[in-house]
Design brief:
The chain is of the alpha+beta class and 137 residues long. It contains three helices and six strands. The strands form two sheets. The protein has a three-stranded antiparallel β-sheet with strand order 1-2-3, covered by helices on one side. The protein has a three-stranded antiparallel β-sheet with strand order 4-5-6, with helices on one face. It is globular and about 65 Å long.
């Protein structure tokens, strides 16, 4: 009997592909898994900033141009999005955002999956609107 881990040929390399895919998935999702296991808040909103725990980034109200919700995502359009590229805490996530970032694009480069937030999306948008108005004053 041949053990699968010592197989030769293409079957041997499928384990490498599987392990590297699993490792990349873990790098992308480890904060979300930690949040689910420990019960950590995914999104914190106050009068100074919006903190996305999954992305490990704080969006300060003075830098936010527009926020809107579409298809269970909260899109954040910033005045100077280039400044926030280096503030992303997860190195793998930072690399992905840098690869897809287009400086001349009108679309927002930053978004938060609100399916992971334990709140009604309409209530969340109302709270965000209230804090953004308060931050302007």
């Amino acid at each position: 009997m041949i053990f699968p881990l010592v197989a030769v040929g293409f079957r041997h390399y499928t384990y490498i592909i599987f392990l590297s895919t699993a490792f990349l998935w873990f790098l992308r999702c480890y904060r979300q898994i930690y949040s689910a296991l420990v019960g950590k808040d995914v999104l914190t909103v106050n009068e100074s900033y919006i903190y996305d725990f999954i992305g490990d980034i704080k969006y300060y109200w003075k830098d936010v141009d527009e926020i809107y919700e579409m298809n269970s995502f909260l899109f954040i359009k910033l005045y100077e999005p280039e400044q926030y590229l280096e503030k992303i805490g997860n190195p793998f996530e930072r690399l992905l955002v840098k690869l897809w970032f287009k400086p001349s694009s009108k679309k927002p480069s930053f978004f938060i999956n609100i399916d992971t937030v334990a709140a009604d999306p309409d209530d969340l948008l109302k709270i965000l609107n209230d804090y953004s108005i308060e931050a302007e004053n």
